[in-house]
Structure prediction request, 304 residues.
Amino acid sequence: MFWFSKKKTTGTKFLDNATDIHCHLLPGVDDGMEVLSDSFELLAQEEMAGLKRVYFTPHSMGLEGAVVDRESSRHHHHHHHHSEDSEAEIPEAEEAEGGVVSSAVLVKRHERLYQASAAASPFKDEPDGGYSNAHLKERFEEYKKYYTGEVEIRLAAEYMMNKEFLAKVHEKDLLTYSDGVHVLVETSYFAPPVEMTEILYTLALSGYKPIIAHPERYQYMSRQDYRTLHGKGYEFQLNFLALTGYYGEEVYQRAIDLLDSGMYSFTGSDLHRISTYYHCMKHLKLNGKRTDKLLKLFENNSTL
Prediction:
């Protein structure tokens, strides 16, 4: 691996009292978590590591980026499954014991209610990745009914920069961070959108502050591209898992370069599944200087 001789295990300490501004833990809305129990388990792990606040940032790609098949097949499956899977399967005896229901039974019931509400939603025909802001808000409100942990959860979104997104900017219909101005945006990993300059400029002109998600992952960006974007005042969000080598050597190198040159303003996990968390938290080793830089990014996160 590519660690330095003077390394310091950062581990999960950096999550103490921290805010994660980028993750895909809202179930059933994108390529992230599928079920409540996985999402709850991951939040419980992060809570133990000291995490204080997390922003769910589901992908919002518009219809251009939508994955129609997966979503429609999923809805039909759940709809079919849950109509048969009625409350009757919870044993009466368990209910009778002073109204105490085992947590496993409760989780199962909550999963079912969460899925049933998705199937009954007026937005149910919106395709995966093409969800409207109203739809994401609805799912988030539903999620909050069942989440009992201590982490403070908030909703934003990760917007794909395309023509449809530009229309949302003009309509001022964006899920921002709690400060009302910062908004998370992304592009494809391989090519910039034709409208990228226009979109970023329009965002700024409309009073928004774009945060460019995981710039280290954009293969088409050169050092000069980073400098130009940063010079225009657009802020960068590091996927801190890039520092573990999770996305490969090249992305690791870009992330280190950007970190060392002070280009990042914020950081996030971009977690989509729990196994990534377990795998990566063990591998975050940085020298003292870089650890300090990462901690500074977490401090900035808490201002959003």
Summary: The longest helix spans residues 103-120. Residues 68 and 157 are 19 Å apart (CA to CA).
